Amino acid sequence: MSFVNVDLLALARDANYFSTLSATNITAPAISLLSYHPDFQTVLGENATARKIADLPWEAFHEAGIYNKKDNSLYVTSNYQSLDDNINITVVSLDDYSITSTQFPDVWEANGGTSYYPPDADQSQTPPQQVYCDEGDFEHYSQLVAVDPNTNNSIILLTSFMGRNFSSINDARQHPVTGDLWFTDADYGYYQFFRPQPAQPKQVYRFEPKTGVVQVVADGFVEPNGLEFSPDLKTLYVTDTGAQQFSFNGTRPATIYAFDIQCDKTLTNRRTFAFSDIGFPDGIHCDTDGNVWAGAGDGVHVWNPEGILLGKIFVGETSNNFAFAPGKVFVFSNSRLWVVENVKAQGREVCKDFGVGCER
Ligand SMILES: *[C@@H]1O[C@H](CO)[C@@H](O)[C@H](O)[C@H]1NC(C)=O
Ligand SMILES: *[C@@H]1O[C@H](CO)[C@@H](O)[C@H](O)[C@H]1NC(C)=O
Ligand SMILES: *[C@@H]1O[C@H](CO)[C@@H](O)[C@H](O)[C@H]1NC(C)=O
Ligand SMILES: *[C@@H]1O[C@H](CO)[C@@H](O)[C@H](O)[C@H]1NC(C)=O
Ligand SMILES: *[C@@H]1O[C@H](CO)[C@@H](O)[C@H](O)[C@H]1NC(C)=O
Ligand SMILES: *[C@@H]1O[C@H](CO)[C@@H](O)[C@H](O)[C@H]1NC(C)=O
C-alpha cells in the first residue's frame, strides 16, 4: 500500500476535493494512509501497510485496547449493546489475531482503560493489571476497577468523588512517575440510556490509588473524553467530544485541549490544540516523538506537537480508539478491526506495556 497525498491547496480552495479522491470515494469502509504533510510518511515509515483483520456483526472494537503480556493479547472494550449483557471485552491475540469475548467480575459497562501498576508494584516488569473505566448502569456505580486478566480478580478502586456519584467515567491513564490515575467523567451512559441523569459537572480528575486522594484538575468541558500525557509528561491532552450527545451537533466541540502539567499533579495554561474536520477526536495516544494520535470520524488522525494535521489512517467510518503495539497500530472502528504494520512510530506506552522498544 502506498500513501495517498492530500493536496492542501486544492482542499483549501474546494470543499468537495476530499470526496473526489479515489481513496475516500468508497461505498464500504476501507483503509488507506492519507498524507496531509510530508512528515506523515516519516512518522509511519515508508513501508507501512494497512489491512482489515475482522468484520463482525456487532460492535466488538470500541475503546481501551490494553495489552496483557501473558497471553500476548489486546483487551478491547465493545460498544454498549443492552442491559441484558455487560459490555463485553474482546480479546485480540497478537499471535494470530484470533478473537474471543470475556467479562470480568464487578465490571459492568467498561469503556476506556489503561495498563496499571498497583502501588508498590515492581515497575521493572510489564504492568500486572488493567484498569477499566466502568460507566456503570442504573444499579451500579460508575467506577474505576483494577483487573488481573490472568486470574479474573477484580479490585474496585474508586466508586465516587467522596460520595458524589460520577456520571460515566470514560477514560483513564496512569501517570508513569507518580502512579496516579488521571481520568475523565462524561455523560455517555446517559446519552446511551443506561445511566441516570448526570448530577456532576464534566471534569478531569486525578486519583491517588495509594492514599485515596481524589481531586478535580480541570473543568469547563462539554464532554471530556480521551486523555493522554505527552512523552515528556509536561503536557496533558484532553479530547472534548461534546459534539456527540444524544445526537451529533457540529456547533459543539470536537476538540483536543492541551494543558501544562505542574509538579506532576495539577494543570494550567489550557489551550486549544486541534479540532477534527469530521466527527470528534475520542481516544488519544502520543507516540514517543510527541505526535498526537486520536480516533475520529473517519479513522485515526495524527497531529504533530504544534497541532498541525500530518495525516490520517483513513477507514471511512468512526474510530473511537486505537492501540499501539511494537511496529503496529490497531485501529478500532466498532464492528471492524484494522491493523497498520511495519510502522516506524512507537506508542508512548509500548516500552512499558510490552517490555520491548525501550532503547529508542
Ligand atoms: C465517486 O466514484 C464514482 C464511481 O467511480 C463516480 O461516479 C463519482 O463521480 C465519484 N464521486 C466523486 C465525488 O468524485
Ligand atoms: C523499506 O523496505 C525496503 C525494501 O525492503 C528497505 O530497503 C528499507 O530499508 C525499508 N525502510 C524502512 C524505513 O524500514
Ligand atoms: C458477551 O459475552 C458473554 C459471556 O462471555 C456471551 O454470552 C455473549 O454472547 C457475548 N456477547 C456478544 C455480543 O458476543
Ligand atoms: C449513586 O449510585 C448508587 C449505585 O448505582 C446508587 O445506589 C445511589 O442511589 C446513587 N446516589 C445518588 C445520589 O444518585
Ligand atoms: C476468566 O473469565 C472468563 C469468562 O468468564 C473465562 O473464559 C476464563 O476462563 C476465566 N479465566 C480464569 C483464569 O479464570
Ligand atoms: C446545536 O447546539 C447548539 C449549541 O448547544 C444549539 O444552540 C443548537 O440549537 C443545536 N442545534 C440543533 C439542530 O440541535
Automatic annotation (TrEMBL):
Pfam family, one: SGL
InterPro entries: 6-blade_b-propeller_TolB-like, Oryzine_lactonohydrolase, SGL
SMP-30/Gluconolactonase/LRE-like region domain residues: 144-320
Official protein name in the record: SMP-30/Gluconolactonase/LRE-like region domain-containing protein
